[in-house]
Amino acid sequence: xxxxxxxxxxxxxxxxxxxxxxxxxxxxxxxxxxxxxxxxxxxxxxxxxxxxxxxxxxxxxxxxxxxxxxxxxxxxxxxxxxxxxxxxxxxxxxxxxxxxxxxxxxxxxxxxxxxxxxxxxxxxxxxxxxxxxxxxxxxxxxxxxxxxxxxxxxxxxxxxxxxxxxxxxxxxxxxxxxxxxxxxxxxxxxxxxxxxxxxxxxxxxxxxxxxxxxxxxxxxxxxxxxxxxxxxxxxxxxxxxxxxxxxxxxxxxxxxxxxxxxxxxxxxxxxxxxxxxxxxxxxxxxxxxxxxxxxxxxxxxxxxxxxxxxxxxxxxxxxxxxxxxxxxxxxxxxxxxxxxxxxxxxxxxxxxxxxxxxxxxxxxxxxxxxxxxx
Length: 374
What we know:
mainly alpha, 13 helices, about 70% helix, globular
């Protein structure tokens, strides 16, 4: 129900934005009021906004040509323009290949999950469907990937793969730890990981410089986390150190990006890149650390009181289940949001430190000593 409500909300928001853009783009009559448009005209105007900058002139020509068409042909013409805007002819073959590959991978993943880890079947189906739709849409719209975008997408894909592999290991070793009767955590995990991959793949070429700074911040935090792991014999206290290390790395990366590009949004973009690259690594390290414990002991009073009534067969399943739930919500959802706030602050600091240098002060005119002035 939550997923359906979210999809309906996104569709409603998209319709509202399209209507607002269409109204803003409506021609102004001689009386100063915007002319009212019928539905085909609004559709063509909205499709024009979806076109890349290089093809906006074609979109305006199509809007002008629509004025000479009457009747049902207007709807056919609007549908054709929308089809070209959503699926440019040069990108359709690539999108078909991407869609076929991801759809086949989704089917294979669902069959594998059904046979090996049935409790993850809902996750496999949700993740595969979301990824198929998103990557097919990106393949239709995007002309050429940038180097920064390709590296980010590869890093996020590697991190998401490590997260999924670790969860599968937990499901195989402790099936009760991944029991999710409502499938809420499975759906959230699938949506978040698919969203990470979409953000990494759909990065704009103009943001390449900020993306590189974000990748540097993610690499720095990953090295620091790897150095912290051997010093912890137990999992307690590890997460409290991973958070500030990642925050400091994202802050420095956002300040550097904002100073380089003199834009606050460059700092936010760098921090977001650092977050989506490092969050899966954070999740994997935290969960793998719990898996390597040789003895599971409950120390928190809350856990000691609730374990006898939890229904878990052993303490290991109880601890791993708690770690999984906390990782999905705290690491994969809250951690990127926190780093985005840190990046916005770093962007403000960095952009403020690179204000344009003022020019030389104006020279005041010297008083004249001519006879006329006297």
